[in-house]
Amino acid sequence: MADGPAVAARAAAAASNRDLYGRTRRPLPRHRGGDRADLRAGRPVAPDADLGVEALARRAGRSPRHFTRALTAETGTPPGRFVDRTRLETARRLPEDTRDSVEHVAARSGYPSQEAMRRAFQRATGLSPVQYRNRF
């Protein structure tokens, strides 16, 4: 049973804030920029900004690979779905709060076109953006 101590060490490391080598794990840091984006909460302030993995990793002060792992661990979703969810949440909120045109909502939500936003909206809610606005 040579694996016994190794298994115990892995279990102890998982229960603490240390990795297998005794190093303290560091959570994904908060962005220190002026826009006060909070990547840990899964809500960047500007969904129309560059939300590619490289840009998000640079904002978080991590390599793209480490950022992907850390974001997935913190939010439970990979970066692509995180960006989609962020844009969709903004696209759902704007029609409720403003009377902006669908084209303007799509641009402010970070969608490349009105059609891309309509498809994402339809997939998530079963409604078009106009139907959603009329209902809520």
Automatic annotation (TrEMBL):
Using the record's annotation, list all stretches that form the HTH araC/xylS-type domain.
Answer: 35-135
Where do transmembrane segments lie in this chain?
A: none
- Tell me the first and last residues of the signal peptide: none
The protein's matches in Gene3D superfamilies, at most eight in alphabetical order, are given as:
Homeodomain-like (1.10.10.60)
State the source organism's domain of life. Bacteria
Q: Where is this region: Disordered?
A: 1-46, 62-82, 94-116
* Composition-biased stretches (Low complexity): 1-15
| The keyword Transcription regulation is annotated on this UniProt entry | yes
Q: What spans are recorded as compositionally biased (Basic and acidic residues)?
A: 32-41, 94-106
Keywords tagged on the record? DNA-binding, Transcription, Transcription regulation
Q: What GO molecular-function term can you cite, just one?
A: sequence-specific DNA binding
For the keyword Cell wall biogenesis/degradation, the answer is no
Q: Which PANTHER family match?
A: ARAC SUBFAMILY, HTH-TYPE TRANSCRIPTIONAL ACTIVATOR RHAS-RELATED
Under which name does UniProt file this protein? AraC-like DNA-binding protein
